[in-house]
Amino acid sequence: MSRMPRATPVPHRGLSLAVLIVNQLLAGVGVASGIAVAALLIGELTGAAVLGGLAQSSSVLGAAITAIPLARLAVRSGRHVALATGYALGMIGAVLIVVAATSGWVPLVFLGLAAFGAGAAAGLQARFAATEVAAPGFEARSMSLVLWATTLGSVAGPLLSETGDTVGLALGLPPLVGPFLFSGAAFGLSTLLVATLLRLPKAGQLAADAVPGAAVSPTEVAPGAGGGGAPEAALAEPIGAEVSASTVAEASAPDPARPIGAWGALRIAAANPRALFAILAIVCSHTVMVGVMVMTPVHMMAHGLSLTLVGVVISIHILGMYGASPLVGWLVDRIGPSRVIYLGVGVLLAATGTGILAPADDMLMVPLALGLLGLGWSCGLIGGSTLVTSAVDPSIRVPLQGATDAAMNLAAAIAAALSGFVLGVGGFAGVNMVAVLVLVPLVVAGVRAARSGGAGAEVSDAPREPVR
User: Fold this and answer.
1) Largest Cα–Cα distance of the chain, in whole Å?
2) Nearest to 65 by CA among 419, 385, 384, 403
3) What domains are defined for the chain?
4) pTM for this one?
5) Residue 245 in this model has a pLDDT that exceeds 50
6) 419, 297 Cβ separation under 8 angstroms
7) What percent of the chain has pLDDT over 90?
8) Which CA distances in Å does 71 have to 78, 176, 355, 386, 431?
9) Which of 93, 261, 284, 303 is deepest in the core (most CB within 10 A)?
10) Quick one: 154 exposed, middle or buried, by C-beta within 10 A (0-12, 13-18, 19+)?
């Protein structure tokens, strides 16, 4: 009888998680301190404020473009190398922006902002690295702690923008360029920290993969597999993985001797109802969040609300996104990722419904809608990311994670580009109505996954005690 694969030993598991958390804080500062003034900088350089929106689009597209290459690098050279590369690209982007803005080369500013996106992509992939250093049963909680650290960076970054501008002016730089000095320094520290201190197991390998007792029961083996002929990949299924007959059949499909690329992994996962549900949870939740969030300040200011009130609403939104992430991670580990995704769909529907009904000057309903929007995103991202990690064979985990992040960022870029048109045609209610439609494929995939999962889904999503 073949033995189950053993996980690569991870010395100083707690240190690795601590490095990821501190690094995520630094990366959050790096992204937020620059992005906070990027739109204003583009407007200042071009004389056209309307072009400011392209700053965010450039960064999001940069994240989409680099997500898959970073995943490939993680498989080939290790997750720490991929993360260090992404943060280094973010640092290079900050340098490009400073040089381009000082010289007046506007196209180079957009290129620098795209490189900024690589830093953001690395920050997103750090959540998967957190699952790889987590003890069995604590994967979602480890992921949520890394995401939670983004809250501190996202709050501290914009607060440093004014100080950065003052420092930049003192050094003779043009207005609004100084914050990118802080961004470059933060990304530089992130690169150094990851490259020197972070050592992870083989990318895509979880400690739960080698835990005895993770084997599926005979009743969960696909019909026709034979009593003693369960696929080896099924026997190595992680604790808490969402196992069904179709999952077991799919698990034996990838050939370990043949590396699978991002799109190949995506095709394999799309044939697995539970993996497809996980992918759509990430993509649809992020698309809804971005589409509604980017138009909220425009909607509020068009109705005469102050920039201060806009800032309050966006702060509540960010608190909903990251502040509750440890609770969301705990829920995922306790009741299962699928149930948390369903909860996220309900919260997002409540958020968009509130947005449809809320008057622009209602400072109770609008903040409530944006807070719920952030919370629903958190449930979708953490639940979906955990399910993506556990529902597929280890050989396709990392390429699938890269493809999912690329799809998520590409969809967000499209949503950001089209939401202004939707706002002009249908108002803020129209933006939220379109967001509801974006959730339809996710709901359909969830129903299909539940029907195909059978007893395996019920077992895998049942509350469980973490393995210690």
Assistant:
1) 75
2) 403
3) 12-206 (1.20.1250.20), 237-468 (1.20.1250.20)
4) 0.77
5) no
6) no
7) 32
8) 9, 33, 36, 17, 33
9) 93
10) buried
